Amino acid sequence: MSTGLIGLIALFVIALVGWAVCEFKAGNVVYKRNEEEEKELREFEKVGEEGYKEMNLRELIKHNSTKGYKAI
């Protein structure tokens, strides 16, 4: 066997072992939301229940905060 083939096989084995370790670690991780994330989630659900209205071009221009040189 050539050295390159041995290196390729070793690299493949190392990659498989690393993948297996990551899979086992990911199974043990439990994610818990903090208070700020819970608040944002409730607000997002509230908007979803009320219905989302997309602004048209005139509303976007009216509420736009950038006015070009006039902003200075």
What does this structure look like?
The chain is an all-alpha fold. Helices cover 65% and strands 0% of the residues. It contains three helices and no strands. The mean pLDDT is 84.
Please supply descriptive tags for the structure shown above.
single chain; 72 residues; mainly alpha; 3 helices; elongated
Strand-helix topology:
Layout: H1 3-27, H2 35-50, H3 57-62
Entry summary:
With 72 residues, the protein is an all-alpha fold.
Percentage of residues in DSSP E strands: under 5%
Our Rg estimate from Cα atoms comes to 27 Å
Structural class: mainly alpha
Distance between the termini: 72 Å
